[in-house]
Structure formats: structure tokens, C-alpha cells
Amino acid sequence: MVQIAIIGGGIGGLTAALALRQCGFEPEVFEQAPALLDVGSAIALWPNAARVLDWLQLGDKILERAGVLEEVRWLDQQGHLINSVRIAGERRFPSIALHRADLQHILLQALPESAIHLGHTLGDYQQRGDRMIASFTNGDSIQADFLIAADGVHSRVRAKFINDGDPIERGYNIWRGISPTILSSMPPGTALEVYGRGKRFGIGPIGLGRTGWWATVNKNHAEDLAELFAGWYQPVLDLIETTPPSSILKTGACDRLPVRNWGRGRMTMIGDAIHPTTPNLGQGGCLAMEDAVVLARSFEKYGASEEALRRCERSRLKRTTMVSRYSRYYGGVGQWENVFARGMRRTALALVPEALALRLMQLFFDYDATSIGI
Prior knowledge:
Layout: E1 4-7, H1 11-22, E2 28-30, E3 42-45, H2 47-55, H3 59-63, E4 67-69, E5 71-76, E6 81-86, E7 95-99, H4 100-109, E8 116-117, E9 122-128, E10 131-136, E11 141-144, E12 146-149, H5 156-161, E13 168-179, E14 190-195, E15 199-205, E16 211-218, H6 225-228, H7 234-242, E17 249-255, E18 263-264, E19 267-269, H8 284-302, H9 306-334, H10 339-351, H11 354-365
Parallel strand pairs: 1-2, 1-12, 2-8, 5-14, 12-19
Antiparallel strand pairs: 3-7, 4-7, 5-6, 9-10, 10-11, 13-16, 13-17, 14-15, 15-16, 18-19
Helix pairs in contact: 1-4, 1-8, 8-9
């Protein structure tokens, strides 16, 4: 039996384990956390990720705990509509959002307990002949035929293999929260993005009577959310107020420039380990899930080989580079502060026809990792 070790038990690592099992392999996952707890923020799963879940036969389970998104609206900070687009397409592959912990739990439950090893922080790895050797800070070490790094934006595998320092900060902070309420003032099945001066606020239903939200603020502003968004569209303030402060997560917006070399020998990287993406398009988790399926299909098509890894890497480079670049640009425009630039942004948003907006979204939504040529 081919031995495949996956470093990282997040969305990408767990999806890779499931996809590889579906293609006849039995990978094992090594996660640094001592327990996978019910923490985290909301995550959007657009149709490109919904196809992955359908392929894994998990779509129905996910829908039971998710909120379905049928429309996207852009508003100004007073709540006035700038533009909107209906995104309710083929019902088999809907756009949804849910608690990240719910997604992780469903993926985890679909794997055998024996395939998950918690409390394993990678210390080092190396290839000896046809074997990958991984050692962990708890004193354990393993040997495997292949090593898949899915260990996130601060990947230890990447630090050794590429050694390109920290991710690139993009000049604004991100807060993420989940309110245990659904506001009566909120339109159902709708994702909102609210624009202000150097600030944005996103809102969407995430299922089970909850609302997910995120806020972005340029780093030259204050830090108190209630102060930052005082006087804004009332649902913004209501969601901040109804979210337990201890559950709000704050990070800097960051990504990395694309690199062509994702691995060497019998090692490769997927997800944020190799192409971390700013969250502006909600595609970071979706890209990791795409990576996982293309990787598994490459193993299935080319056999357990270094060629399979390299084929996967080459087939994913253009797609991940495009999404990461557009996400960075979209976020940069969203954080504009200059009054004239903001006026141009509003005018441009307002003038985009719905048909054109849908075509632009289809650049991201129509990708099918389960059938794309590799």
C-alpha cells in the first residue's frame, strides 16, 4: 500500500485525505493542534467548491448546516444599494456559507479515526531515496512514500523548501465574527458588501440561525470596531454588538507572489502553504479543495509517482495565480480612501450590468476540479 502523509488537518488537508481515499489510497493526516475545536469564522463555498463536495458525496451533509447565497448586493455605508446580482444558478452546485468548524467537522467525520494524528507539529522533513522522512516536535517520526504539505500560510514545509520569509502584508486588517442571530432587517439568502472610506463590511447567512460577517480596515485607522463603524448601516452595528467579543478573530490581510516550484521529489504543497490568497473573493478555502481533488486525480491517472505531483502542480499554477491576483486587486480597490477614487469606485460598481457581473463571477465559479484536464 502506498503511504501518503499529509501535513495539516485544515480544510485543504482533510479534503486531500478524502479525495485520495476516493481514488483508492489510504493517506494519514498529521495535525499540530491537540484537538480540532469548534472555533473559527465563516467560510464561503462557491460553486467551484460545491462541485468538490458533490464529488466527495458530502454536498447534502454540508447543506444541512449552511446558508444558501442567492444574491450579492453592494451597498454604501448608509445602506443605499449600489448594485446587485442574482447568483442562484444550478441547484446542484449552489453558493453557500457556513461555520468553518462545521465544514471541518463534516470532513473529519468522513475519515476513519485511525487516519488522523493530532498533536503533531512538523519539525523537519527530508527525502531519502524513495522515502520521505518527517519528524515532529513531540519526538515522533514517520516514513512515507509521499509528503503533502497542507500546513497553511505559515507552512513549515515551505519555510524549509522555499525559505521566502513571511507572507506579504497588504496594508489592512480583517476581523471575522459569527453572530448567533439572523437580523429581521437583512434580506434572506443575500450576501452584502458595504463600502466606506478605507473600510468594508461583509455579511451573509451561514445556516442554523447564524450570520457570518467580516470587516476590513486600513491599518492607519483605530482598532475598536464599534468606533470604526459608528454611524454605518444599522445591521453592521447590530452584528458587532451581538457577537461575543472573545470569538472575534483579527488578522492582517496577506498573500504571497506566485512561485512555479511547488515541490521536489516526492513532496508537494497545496492550499495556503503554496498560494495564500487575500480573502476578498472568498476563494482561499475553495482553491485548497480544488488542489486536493486535482492532486488525487493525478495520482489516479499517473500512478503514485513524482510525475503525478508535477502534473498536478503545472495544472494548478495558472488558476491559483489568477484568483490570487484578482483577489489582491479587488481588495486594494475596496480599501481606497481618497474621495475621488471612492467616487470612481461607486460609479464603476453601479454601472456594471448584471450579465457582465455574472460572467466575471463565472471565471471563478465555473472551474471544475473533478473533470479539468491534467
